[in-house]
């Protein structure tokens, strides 16, 4: 059963990478995602793939329909999309360039008290990504990460509550020291 759990993770990763392609604006990142998809796709045994697809369909993670040419068309169900979003969130990381461009990436949010759990989850995810807490609802990071922040905002459905800024800062010695810049 563990083998099938790993394989279903691979299949959902393929679908997650497809979803991530839609979020990414960077051509290099899209090319990396496509290479990763090829690697995963080529590592999957076709008989096991069909078995996993049946299991994913049975567990309502995917739906299988026929298209106009009578070919099978696989899509994620809402339950599958939630699982894929979780996979994306767990895989989310920010690549650090060789050189810093001198700009700070600032995430500012104002999330109501009745959404405290979401607010705390966002804070935790920002810290996992490497951000430092500048103020209670203000986080700073030195490298480009707009795509990653968009993924977080979409995952938590916070487009009305979160702002992303790129700016230079005066008196940033403490931040430079924290990030080793």
Task: Summarize the structure in short.
The protein has 181 residues and is an alpha+beta fold. It is 54% helix and 17% strand.
Estimate percent helicity.
40-55%
> Which structural class should the secondary elements be placed in?
alpha+beta
If strands are numbered along the chain, what order do they take across the biggest sheet? 4-5-3-6
When the domains are counted, the total is 2
How many H/I helical runs? 7
Rg from alpha-carbon coordinates: 19 Å
- Give the CATH topology of the largest domain: Arc Repressor Mutant, subunit A
Task: Please describe what this structure looks like.
This protein has 181 residues and is an alpha+beta fold. Helices cover 54% and strands 17% of the residues. The protein has 2 domains: 2-91, Arc Repressor Mutant, subunit A (Orthogonal Bundle), CATH 1.10.10; 104-179, Alpha-Beta Plaits. Helix 1 (2-23) runs antiparallel to helix 2, helix 1 (2-23) crosses helix 3 (46-58) and helix 1 packs across helix 4. The longest helix has 22 residues, at 2-23. The protein is elongated. It starts with a helix and ends with a helix. The mean pLDDT is 85.
């Amino acid at each position: 059963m563990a083998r099938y759990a790993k394989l279903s993770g691979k299949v959902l990763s393929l679908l997650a990478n497809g979803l991530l392609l839609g979020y990414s604006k960077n051509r290099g990142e899209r090319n990396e995602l496509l290479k990763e998809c090829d690697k995963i796709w080529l590592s999957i045994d076709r008989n096991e793939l069909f078995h996993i697809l049946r299991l994913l369909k049975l567990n309502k993670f995917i739906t299988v329909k026929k298209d106009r040419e009578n070919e099978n068309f696989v899509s994620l169900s809402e339950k599958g999309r939630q699982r894929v979003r979780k996979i994306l969130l767990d895989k989310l990381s920010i690549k650090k360039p060789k050189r810093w461009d001198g700009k700070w990436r600032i995430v500012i949010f104002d999330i109501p008290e009745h959404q405290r759990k979401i607010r705390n989850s966002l804070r935790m995810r920002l810290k996992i990504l490497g951000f430092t807490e500048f103020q209670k609802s203000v986080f700073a990071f030195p490298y480009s990460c707009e795509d990653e922040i968009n993924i977080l905002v979409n995952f938590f459905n916070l487009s009305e509550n979160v702002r992303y800024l790129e700016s230079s800062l005066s008196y940033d010695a403490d931040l430079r020291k924290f990030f080793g810049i």
